[in-house]
Protein: ATPase
Amino acid sequence: MEPAARAAAAILAGRAVLGIELGSTRIKACLIGDDPAVPIASGGHDWENVFVDRLFTYALEDVWAGIQAAYADLVADVRRRYDVQPTTFGAIGVSAMMHGYLAFDDSGDLLVPFRTWRNTSTGRAAAQLSELFGVNIPLRWSVAHLRQAMLDEEPHVGDVAFLTTLAGYVHWKLTGRKVLGVGDASGMFPIDPTTRDYDDELLARFDASASNPSVPPLRSLLPGVLTAGAAAGELTAEGATLLDPSGTLLPGVPLCPPEGDAGTGMVANNAVSPRTGNVSAGTSIFAMVVLERALEHPHRELDVVTTPAGDPVAMVHCNNGASELAEWAGLFGRFAAAAGTPLDPDRVFEVLLREALSGDPDAGGLLAYNYLAGEPITATDEGRPLVVRTPDSRLSLGNLMRAQLYGVFGTLSLGMRALVDEKVELERMHAHGGVFRTAGVAQRFLAAALDAPIAVADTAAEGGAWGIAALAAYARRVAASESDSAQLSLARFLDETVFRDASVQVVAPDPVDVVGFAAYLDRYRDGLAVERAAIDAL
Structure:
């Protein structure tokens, strides 16, 4: 049977698996068939956060409008490709940006606008909790947002009955269940690696130190925690209507635990086993390294989170990724159109990234900061995108674009130094995200930034929507085999089923690029004083 016929048969039989991921700038839907390694249809919808009252947020109405648009786009893609209409699926998975603050009262009403991971207004709370717990609590974690609201004596705090993440919220509305995958939960509150649930001792410390007696025990406010492979509920009639207002989609589809974008990125890169890691580049950029042992010391640059199976992970998270690069691409795209030679946005990116290869190894003395938001690793509370150069620098398109790409990886490289200090060893480092679609450019520069080989799979641009679809397929496989995730581990499922025949391109660091990036990073570190001055002045 031809691939298209096999895909159509899987869709008509209700075996196809749907993954939906809500990223910072795009909501994606991905459909996989009987072979979870191969996406058979996709859909998407562009969206963007807004900055209101000095906080980054998304309206919940936009969440559902975006999900419905992405789902409708996927259904249209199915019709174009296979001339069939999906009415049910073998499983569904939901993923989204981790962290942040979604607080609801006991009637299920949102108490304050969604505060995303991008906000850096929780400094006092994060510092207090890091000292109280003895582990690093980053600014973006949900518990930091809650504690900051308590410290600020915000009126809504006494009415909080449920806290969750964006993925947890969507899953709740689709199934009625208030649960999270352990990877996403690990960005709300620290996880005990033994129980793979919230750390009871740290919960007790939080409750004992809480200054607001009207707030109930923290565990009662948090979603339940599930590991990969667990059953996480079924699509209700109300949930089916939320996904598909046309009424074509039927209820009853099983869902896997909702996960965060970090966890789905690990799955999309087959980086869930110890000594593996991955870099995900989007609006933010972060590196995940699965640990063999606990870190010896807390580090401000490192979060300790988990894989979707609950194994500990060191995470270097940078608030600012490829968004500023996209702004420059938009500028040059408009120039091309104004000059009478319009180019597709993907073609604009390809031209600019390949031009970066002609730049000097150190970007010719240019310096670029991609700080649209604050960056905790470099202790900047807000963002001011900058391009800085000296009079004797070599301004060219190649150097400008190389500086922009180096800037995407600059803060990440600084944060990764903490893992070097901990003597954490890696067997492989994978990368995924749209910036890696132009083969051999961003991958090469990331290899120089980390001074390590970087692998990019042929599915790297599929990202988290495919990753959560793979997690849903894993849960379906566990349920069908009447097994459990201990007998069919996530790592084994990925190795033997999803990535068995995967094509992976590995780029080793070029010594000339390594030296050039090191020189750039020295300037980058020194130039942070300019970034901070811009924040103070503008």
